[in-house]
Amino acid sequence: MTDRVGDEENTPLLSDSDVVSNARPPTSFAERVNSVAQEPLTPLTKILLILALVLLLTCSVFIGLFAGAQHKLNVERGDGRNGHTHPPKTVTVTATATTTATTSATTTATSTAVSTVTTSLPTTVTLPAPIPVPTIPPEDIPCLEPHCVILSASIISSLDVSQDPCENFYDFANGGWLKEHPLPADKSSFGNFEVLSQQNKRVIQEILESKSSAEHTPSHDSEILTKLRDSYSACSNEERLDSIGSAPLLRFIKTLRRLYRKEDTEISLLPGIDSGLTAAIAFLHSRGIESLFSFEIEGDVGTDPNFMVPWFSQPKFGLPSKEYYEDKAIRKVYKDVVERLLLTITEEEGKDVSQSSPVLVVDDDDDTVWPPWPWPPWGGDDDDDGHKGDDKGGNRSQEIKVLAKKVVVFERKLAQASLDLDVLYQDPITTYNPVPISNLTDSLPQLDFATYFSTFTPRTFPDRVILTDPTYAASLSKILDDTASEVIEAYLTIRAALTLSPYLGMATEAWQVQRSLVETLTGIKKGAVGDRAEYCIGKVEETLGFAAGRYFVNETFRGDSREKGTKVISDIVEAFKTSLPHIDWMDKKSATAAAEKADAIRVKVGYPLSPNTRNARSIAGYYSNVKVDKLTFFENMLSAATGDKFKQWLQLGRQRNRESWEMFPSTVNAYFNPPSNEIVFPAGIMQPPFFSHNWPGYLSYGAFGHVAAHELTHAFDSAGRLYNQKGKLEEWWTNSTSMGFNVKQRCIVDQYSEYTIDDGHGGKIHVNGNLTSGENIGDTGLIQAYRAWKAQYHTSIKEGGEYLLPGLNFTSSLVRDQLFFISFARIWARAMKPAAAVQRIRTDPHSPTRYRVDGTVSNIPEFAKAFKCSKTAKLNPPTEKQCIFWS
């Protein structure tokens, strides 16, 4: 309702209809005054008269004080313009009424009604100044709708206003959140990404635990939901998992051992493969277990990025990176884990075979015990303490201790032969080495690659392979030659056990052993286990992610979320293109080419079209070969891993499916794929605190806008810039532009290399500026999100899209700018164990979140302006010390 200024009240608020006066009222004002004056004053009348006089006197004093202050202010300001004062001749009184309405999208719009009364007065009369109106414009009245209050409260609670934003912006924006979210005992790292991931999992959990049937195309949706619910049920049935024990793992290892030892040439799991190392490796790789080396099917970026070819590379290791193998304490822990796993497998299989358990064997007639005793079949090796093993195999645990040490030594050699991760992740030129397939087979003769490839039944046999490291195959060959067969067998066993034991019951020794390694490497409290439902939903997503994504999207990604998210991305692309002519290190030719690449980027938002999330038949067909049983969690995971691996190999020799995704719809993440020149944003990340379709623009562009700008900027970072608009690997910038970029990149590398973390033992570890340079450059894209927001601001504010939130008026003229940066910083709130932080420093191409915030804003002058930072502030360094890429 709009208040009307000046309307008179024509009817009484209360009316007594039972009392009617017949007395004639005085006919004139004088008569009425005389009548009242002649009436005697009652005590009540006297009291009211005194109160009225006091009130009148008080009002007069306040009006006088206010008028004097206003007059003095006008004199000092010179009417606010030119420093001169003039006697008031005409006074214009403006009354403003504001109406707040809510649109269908729950966006608050503000309309203003203004009435003006002009009165001419004698020049000798000075009236008091009009009652002051709000100092902020009428359209800046904060939104008081419930969703605005809730959103404002979440932001306020995340802040620590005792911190100076110009010195510690990460702490300022996230200190409150960190206090309210202590790190859970079962987690090594926990932040807003994990909070949203948990929320997304709960959405899927409610769907899987509900008994409702599918409404659309019941046959296909029923099939999908049955698989999803059976997969979840199998994982959730902890009692059954504990009762089964280690049997599934032992059965798997027995098959692996028989393949490696050529004990059975008719095992139907691998048609055509009948011998040794090749058979064992093919068996492991077909189940998604990396060992010795890895193969990925990806585009040939040197010739045709959409033609899918095999890439040969180093594998994952038992420890996260090669640095861990040089840490004596960690190496000792790992050796103990390997030893315990080998001993557990030995004891469990011997015990179960002696009890004639049929689940342990591939062939029911086989009753051999693995490992055979004495095992290892050699004796006399020194153990860690210099003791000799029993040549006759009498001391089994001592022999296993020696074998475990040899396995760790073997893995350490593999790690030392592998590429450093900063090269593997950041240097696409060095890691692109196409060779004829004969080069690989000649370098690694221990493997029969023709037989290996036949395992995955590709449509065409590859005649060309791309090596990420041209020396690794030869190094691996030499290491294999220098290693006893029994050690290689034990290594393969450990790779299987570490990968598969998490799928056993938590009461099993194998599960507990691998868990102890996780606890050591990440700092998780010993014995602390998280919510089983959360874990199981994660496994459902891992194995049937596009199927789960169908129902997740239906529940969470409605309305105009896709359109509004796409608009944010498109605005950022335009802002980036607009900035190109103004970049000091980029010449005109390169700027034109960069704009063409930006225009060519494919933007995918929400969910994939292959398989089509909105089409139940498409999803059902995609997972038709994945077998799921509600009683066999271990086998379900193997089936899904096998299905994924064979789907990858089916792409060999084909053109890239341009509609496929590398992430599931519920994933809280986003990515840029250089060979296909696309940026992808799953529905999972398009939820608060990253995005909401009814947020004000400054929040959307600050949070989700940064995610979008980050991925766009990857197309022009240290690695992405080496791919042209068609995804082909080539140097498409001019030499002078490349040289200018290298100077900027060196600035970023040096800046982040100065940052450190605590190692948990009183020491400091520096961020690897080379490893993280691509991601740090991606974070510089925040300035493009800021420019995109500013470019659409005037249109947005007219449409009610930049409404303020209550209680967040830090600096009235800059509040939106400040909240833009706060919304960016909030998404990176994260608590982390020191051990996990060390692991990330060594393996993660992303910098610690603290530096992703403070390091980024220190290179953006607009941040310092928004918070009015002094020239000496930590996050407002001199221009010559800033690493400014995009201006």
TrEMBL record:
Gene Ontology MF terms in the entry: metal ion binding; metalloendopeptidase activity
Q: Which residues form the Peptidase M13 C-terminal domain?
A: 669-883
**Ranges for the Peptidase M13 N-terminal domain?**
165-608
Spell out the Gene3D superfamilies in the cross-references: Collagenase (Catalytic Domain), Neutral endopeptidase , domain2
Gene Ontology terms describing biological process: protein processing
Feature: compositional bias, Basic and acidic residues: 385-394
Which parts of the sequence are annotated with region: Disordered? 1-25, 354-395
Chain ranges passing through the membrane:
47-67
Q: Which cofactor does it need?
A: Zn(2+)
Return the GO cellular component terms, semicolon-separated. Answer: plasma membrane
Query: What keywords appear on the UniProt entry?
Result: Hydrolase, Membrane, Metal-binding, Metalloprotease, Protease, Transmembrane, Transmembrane helix, Zinc
- What family is reported? Belongs to the peptidase M13 family.
From the Swiss-Prot or TrEMBL record, give the protein name.
Endothelin-converting enzyme 1
Q: Which organism is it from?
A: Laccaria amethystina LaAM-08-1
Q: What is the lineage of its organism?
A: Eukaryota, Fungi, Dikarya, Basidiomycota, Agaricomycotina
